[in-house]
Structures are given as C-alpha cells and as structure tokens.
Design brief:
This protein is globular. The chain is built from 7 helices and 4 strands, in the order βααβααβααβα. The structure holds adenosine-5'-diphosphate (ADP) and magnesium ion. Adenosine-5'-diphosphate binds next to loops.
C-alpha cells in the first residue's frame, strides 16, 4: 500500500480545551505524520461548503454553527493507508460508541462535538485537502 494523505480537522470543542497537542499525539503514535497544519477560524460559508454533503441532514445547521464557534486546526496526515488508519485512530462518530484508545473515546464530548474530522475516502481526501491547502504547503 502506497503512502496516502487524508484531511483531518481538530474541531472547536478540542481547541477550546487546549488539547490539540494531545490529539496530535494519537496521530503520531498511530503511525501518521502531520504533513501540513494550520489553525484557522472557519467562516460560515466555508463550513457550509465543507459539509455540503450533509446539507439535507437535520443536524446540518447546528453542525455549521458549531464548526464556526471557535478555531479549528486543519491538517494533512500522511502514512500507509492514511484514510482508513485515521478513521481507526478517531473512533466512531458518536464518542459513546467509540472504542477504547480512540481520540473520540478519550476526548469527544457528544455526537456533534466529537473533537475530530477525518476524510472518509481517498477521493474525498483529495477534495478536502485541496479545500484548505495548496501543494507547496504540504511537506510529508
Ligand atoms: P464522521 O465525522 O464520523 O465522518 P458524519 O460524516 O456522519 O461523521 O457526520 C459529520 C459530522 O456531523 C460528525 O462528525 C458530527 O460532528 C456531526 N454529526 C453527525 N451525526 C450527528 C447527529 N446525529 N447529531 C448532531 N451532529 C451530528
Ligand atoms: Mg464524515
């Protein structure tokens, strides 16, 4: 399996609690490299566009409000099978159902404020990485 990249976001519930370093430790201990990283405050337009796949879901409005409620850290993670590997490191969407040892089990608050985003496929990873980063900003 070739080296792959995925888009990660450390969400506002985690930046608010000042635990971005603790979360990065999960990625690095889990075999992924942080190839790009920046702390930004999403605009409502960016949040709506980023999550547009969920625009028909009942939680879409709340999700966008939450994602602009504080800063986030957007990241490119790189490594073997990075998309799937990161989803394993993150754990299930609902922290109550996440396995022991995952970011969401350790730090997630609830099904919305679940501390991290990770791309769900290599195709979406490429789209999501390009949403936040230019090629020269990514150094694996
Ligand atoms: P994941 O982030 O695990 O890929 P989804 O893509 O299904 O999960 O959902 C995107 C985000 O929307 C979740 O990470 C979470 O912040 C929020 N979300 C998902 N389901 C719910 C829900 N039932 N109620 C509130 N927010 C939700
Ligand atoms: Mg998703």
């Amino acid at each position: 399996m070739a080296v792959e990249r995925t888009l990660s976001i450390i969400k506002p519930d985690a930046t608010e609690r000042n635990i971005t370093g603790k979360i990065n430790n999960f990625f690095e201990e889990g075999g992924l490299r942080i190839a790009a990283q920046k702390r930004i405050h999403l605009t409502m337009g960016q949040a709506q566009q980023f999550y547009s796949v969920h625009k028909e879901r009942p939680f879409f409005g709340e999700l966008c409000d939450y994602m602009v409620s504080g800063p986030v850290v957007v990241q490119v993670l790189e490594g073997e099978n990075a998309v799937v590997r990161n989803r394993e490191i993150m754990g299930a969407t609902n922290p109550a159902q996440a396995e022991e040892g995952t970011v969401r089990k350790a730090h997630g608050v609830d099904v919305q404020a679940n501390s991290v985003h990770g791309s769900d496929s290599p195709e979406n990873a490429a789209i999501e990485i390009a949403f936040f980063f230019s090629g020269t900003e990514i150094v694996g």
